Amino acid sequence: MTAREGGELVRRASSGTVKNITFTNPKASEFFVDGSSIPLVDFDVGPSWSGLIPISGDGNETRKLFFWFFPPGPEGSLDDLVFWTNGGPGCSSLEGSFQENGPFTWAPGQAKPTQNEWSWTNLSSLLYVEQPVGTGFSQGKPTARDENDVAAQLVGFMQQFLDIFSELKGKKLYLTGESYAGMYVPYIANFIYENASSLDLNLQGIWVSDPVLGWDVVQTQIPAVAFVHKYEHVFAFNQSFMAELDSIAARCNYSDYFEKHVSYPPTGLLPLPGRSTEFERGCDVWDMIFDAAVIVNPAFNIYRIFDTFPILWDVLGFPGSFEQIQVSPLYFDRSDVKAAIHAPQDVDWAECSNVNVFPRGDASLPPAFTVLPNVIEKSNRSVIVHGLGDFILIAEGARVVLQNMTWNGQQGFQTPIGNDSFIVDGVGALGNMHSERGLTYFEVALSGHMVPQYSPVAAFQIMSYLMGFRENP
Q1: What family classification does the UniProt entry report for this protein (predicted)?
Q2: Residues with catalytic annotation?
């Protein structure tokens, strides 16, 4: 299988056609989903499998994770398996399936579901898992104290999953996710690398997009005012408020942070702008900007700043900064949908759960300080992707995190990230990219927080590169 033909990306919708895949374990049939009978979908999605599986082989185990597995389409590889998780913490991976990179999508503003010509099933099999415990349809009492607990529980689930779907054993595995999955994915990957016998899959690499990698102050506060200046005509703030923001940014050591501390290569560890990993008193410019933005533009979307009225109707009820209350029921809260995908009827499904998946908080440090360097070093390829129109986590903050991280013997990127260096087939320059020592970093122009949703062509090309289906990014 190749991801290129005549210089162009291959991206055909599966149209209900998939490569032959048969599971011999009789239990697998209990999870089978008839692709011609998915409610409100007026085309055959093709076969898939979904339902609840325990996180351990303990007969008394009450904690279960919900999954939805899709086999590859006609252009996809049978040798690979892509795992996807959304973030939150506590947000459902069915969002990723339904509005980002699955074989059929119902994006905000659409009247009905449509086939996704940029589905990642055109690359390989796809496994969406609602995790940690407490997310979506998952069952049981959350017990995770930190990311190592999350990783151990997910690997336990995967062991039970592979016992049922044993034909997937030995496949090349890619761990992918976005947002708070910037915490999940590196820790899960590290757990697998450090416990090689725990899982009969061959982990190849990771994708994290618009990820939590470092401290809040770095990824949100330091770059916030500069971000507003970059998009002044979008925010449309008056001059007096801009002057107030500039004054606070200067006082809080944000405004000249890049000039003072960010270089290629780095000259040493990059300091915090103050003593807090979140913000010093009087230095919360991010919330000041948000509060002002929703006054100027009541439709202001932290996930993609370019949105204005009308706010698109969303069948999952969460198209932007605020939940929609007029959507009833949400698609995955319909009883017929639950029946079709073997989901529990007694769960009130929401895109982001009200359950605290870390009952006492997540005790883990951000992965840039802990496991991410080891994961990059042990992977064939790793990619970090960022939408340039994302305000909830800002790309320039991710740059700071990377310049402060040491992997494969050196700190940060040694040479600068080139402008307009991310070339998308059939499009041209669509942002910036840089690759060094096993890590490739992408910034996607016009994309918001959910890159596969807002820029599916770019996301498909990046995923093709991660999987080795194209030599160059």
Answers
A1: Belongs to the peptidase S10 family.
A2: 179, 390, 449
